[in-house]
Amino acid sequence: MTIFLDSDVLIDCLRGTDTSRAWLASVSSESFQVPGIVAMELTAGCQNWSELQRIQKFLNAFEIV
């Protein structure tokens, strides 16, 4: 099964929210994909270069579709 991740879940993970990280860990055997629009939402929300680099590194862990 493929799980499409929404920006809400990814933002919570980036913020270190325990519940979102726990959920991601519980379904880690599944394949994850991030819709392109969600990736754009995350990058558009960056306020500086270091945030953009952090988001890009984070997104590299997922397949963007």
Q: Which sequence of SSEs, written as H and E, runs from N to C? A: EHHEHHE
Q: Helical amount among residues, as a percent range?
A: 55-70%
Termini gap:
15 Å
Radius of gyration: 12 Å
The shape is: globular
Number of helices: 4
Largest sheet entry: 3 strands, parallel
Structural class: alpha/beta
Strand content: 5-15%
Number of domains: 1
Average pLDDT works out at 91
Give the low-pLDDT segments.
none
Query: What is the number of strand segments?
Result: 3
Strand order of the largest sheet: 1-2-3
In short:
It is built from four helices and three strands, in the order βααβααβ. It is an alpha/beta fold.
Account of the 3D structure:
- By secondary structure, the protein is an alpha/beta fold.
- The chain has one domain (2-64).
- It is 58% helix and 14% strand.
- The chain is built from 4 helices and 3 strands.
- It has a 3-stranded parallel β-sheet.
- Helix 1 (7-15) packs across helix 2.
- The longest helix has 11 residues, at 49-59.
- The radius of gyration is 12 Å and the shape is globular.
